[in-house]
Amino acid sequence: MINTFILAAHTVVAIALIALVLVQQGKGADAGAAFGSGASATMFGSRGAASFLSRTTAVLATVFFLTSLTLGYFATQGSAPKSVVERIQVEKPVEVPKSGGPADVPQLPKK
Questions:
Q1: Which GO terms describe its cellular component (predicted)?
Q2: Is the dihedral of CA 19, 22, 27, 32 positive or negative?
């Protein structure tokens, strides 16, 4: 149940992080603002949104990494064997015949 909740939160955070990164303006757009480009008509002003968007991106990235680590931890926890040796021990043991050798070899009489 907790695994499903973390997976859903991980998906929502990933989509939000992608959308937030796509909304941000690149560093190369500042050069266009110097020559009278439309940077003054932005929603947050020319530099007002940089700190808000960068902080929100950092928070979402941190949550994304934490959910990734948590999902990785839950994936390793389980009833599956952890090594090859444990897998061999879990499988059905090989049955050893109770007679001294193969059935087609005749037994020599004892003296």
A1: plasma membrane
A2: negative
